[in-house]
Amino acid sequence: MTQSKVCAFGDDPMVVRHTFAQFPSGVAVLAVDIGGEKHALVASSFMVGVSLEPCLVAVAVQKSSETWGAIKDADSLGVSIFGKDQGDLLRKLASKDRAARFEQVVIEVRDEGAVYIDDAALWLECSIHEVSEAGDHWLALLEVKQLGVGENEPLVWHGAKFRELVDAESVGVK
Ligand SMILES: Cc1cc2nc3c(=O)[nH]c(=O)nc-3n(C[C@H](O)[C@H](O)[C@H](O)COP(=O)(O)O)c2cc1C
């Protein structure tokens, strides 16, 4: 008998977290300035290409997120995808001390309130298209209004570590 590749995970969330951590992703920060107060929500659940016409991306946000409560009605959200050397910045923008998140962080604030971090891999200006319930998260569809690509390569989040992209065909080839 062949051994099964899958097994029941019961009610152990750590098994689920550990398994999902093997799925690599980029990490986004949704950022906005509302009346001079800046908010940042770091999310690895960010997903591009949900739809091309209209241009939609998605993010899953924990229902417990205080930042989401503050930004969910914003007209415009800045989305920056962290670059390969921005792990420390990511940690800062995701820190528990919400008031300190933007201390000494180089940003650009646009008139409509969208906030972008410097040296990101790419930037999107989005509006909130639709929000639906997804278990213990909100699933937010964002409509992309403007976009741009930076010169920094993206940081990769995998196995609870920050990693960098490597060209597979160049590995081991002399
Ligand atoms: C690498 C990384 C990825 C994260 N991904 C998500 C995510 O996809 N969705 C989410 O709601 N929170 C995510 N978080 C947690 C949030 O960034 C934030 O810490 C949390 O929402 C609590 O802060 P808040 O109450 O200000 O929202 C992530 C944190 C880190 C460090």
UniProtKB/TrEMBL annotation:
Q: Which UniProt keywords apply?
A: Oxidoreductase
* Gene Ontology terms, MF aspect: FMN binding; riboflavin reductase (NADPH) activity
Q: Which Gene3D superfamilies match?
A: Electron Transport, Fmn-binding Protein, Chain A
What domain of life is recorded for the organism? Bacteria
Q: Where is the Flavin reductase like domain?
A: 20-164
- Extract the InterPro entries matched here: Flavin_Rdtase-like_dom, NADH-dep_flavin_reductase, Split_barrel_FMN-bd
Q: Which Pfam families match?
A: Flavin_Reduct
Q: Key word Oxidoreductase present in the record?
A: yes
> Mind telling me which PANTHER family this protein's record contains?
FLAVIN REDUCTASE, FLAVIN-DEPENDENT MONOOXYGENASE, REDUCTASE SUBUNIT HSAB
Q: Which family does it belong to?
A: Belongs to the non-flavoprotein flavin reductase family.
The molecule here is called Flavin reductase (DIM6/NTAB) family NADH-FMN oxidoreductase RutF
List the source organism: Streptomyces brevispora
User: What is the organism lineage in this UniProt record?
Assistant: Bacteria, Bacillati, Actinomycetota, Actinomycetes, Kitasatosporales
